[in-house]
Write the structure tokens for this entry.
Amino acid sequence: MSARIAAAGKVLFGQSYFLRFDPKLFAAMQPYPPLGTLYAASFIRSRGYDVALFDAMLADSETEWDLALQRHQPTIAVLYEDNFNYLSKMCLLRMRDAAFTMIGLARKRGCLVIVAGSDATDHAQAYLDAGAQYVLVGEGEETLGELLDHLHGKPAAPPAEDILGLAYISGDELRVNPRRPDLKDLDALPFPAWDLVDIQRYRAVWVEHHGYYSMNVATSRGCPYHCNWCAKPIWGQRYHVRSAENVAAEFAWLKQTYAPDHIWVVDDIFGLIPGWMEQFADLVEQKDARLPFKSLQRVDLILKGNTIDALRRAGAERIWMGAESGSQKILDAMEKGTQVENIYEAARRLHAAGIKVGFFLQFGYPGETRQDVEKTLQMVRDCHPDDIGMSVSYPLPGTRFFSAVQHELGSKQNWQDSEDLAMLYHGPFSTAFYRWLHRVLHREFRAQRAWDQMLPALRQPLTLRRRHLKLARSVLYAKLALPILRLELERRARAPHQGLINLVPVEAATE
């Protein structure tokens, strides 16, 4: 198939991650616009196309997409998922259903439909069966640009069969063209199309729920490390980074134009290149571009050189670390390439520098024992992180983990939403155990945080305030409830469940 459009018209961009469809994240109410979608819209606009945006993040349902189609009357609808949002990479079933509904609505309005994203890359046939005419496989901006030129009949445009990174139906068969090389010069991309976003609505939500306004920034694409559970359908093992000058210029532009109070740096790894962070910190100071930010780092990289001091100077307010487990056995099985002692030391040094610490924790990896679980719980007690996030090992296509457990997957191979925590393969313990573990972990963590906040006041009784009484009640309640919760956790740990899979680490492959 090589569809063409009759006349040039508006290109409507959208994506299918609806915050309202994800109960846990909807309760947290920390919404960010779809940054990957904004990059694609900006790139296509730079090629002379008229673009508009439907932002599903704050929408109530797919009905609002239909209203946007009616309002903008686009000839082409592009569902371009935000590849910087890890939840898009998880391919949640509720969001896939939303995407299929949105495809159907766009086709009913007479649009040609193009889809891009992690789930579509892994399951192109399913999206084409749902009514999309084209799927962008992998990184999408250049592929989309060439495809739009082709659809509009531009003289220099390549035929569909020569457009790299494109999947479509040819005759009665799926055709998937060879992958397109990733963009290397990220500085050449225009800044995201923030002017298409309802900034004031986002600001109002953030201020109402948190007292400040946060925006999102991407400084790099991809990750070169080999954690064998990490799905990388868009960039694979490759890693490309913007220059420190370009990122500092964006910080300065955002600060001057939109005045955010905070930035979320969405990279898989922020500041991986040696010397980059120090240079960025210098430029932020020179340009008066400093904004408090949170970002994700590897624990071993945090400990190198002057990284922590550079993070502090650049404005780091909170650093999330992919700690994963307090068991070295599990980290080795994951091929994480880090040591448990790295986690302890990185947390200690960040706290000493006045930077808050978040731990991403993963349970349920093949071979995990009750003792391994307890080591992770003890790591949280010892390191006193300021925030935690818990997940359960989640097999996604393209990973070695998925290959090892694929024969054990049932009809359900994705979570419904981010709090599902279903054990999708025959893991160490049951789904019921891990859901209860989530409850125990967070109850204990909240009690520990309350105690940490109370302790300074207890040492100086004259500083005691009413809020400390509230904290004391929280600690007391946890002390009474946790023994009962732990007993139930042990009961669930002993409950029959289907057996383990031993996943032996292998030497990391080279690119």
Notes: The longest strand covers residues 316-324. The radius of gyration is 24 Å. Residues 499-511 have pLDDT under 50 and may be disordered. The chain is about 40% helix and 15% strand.
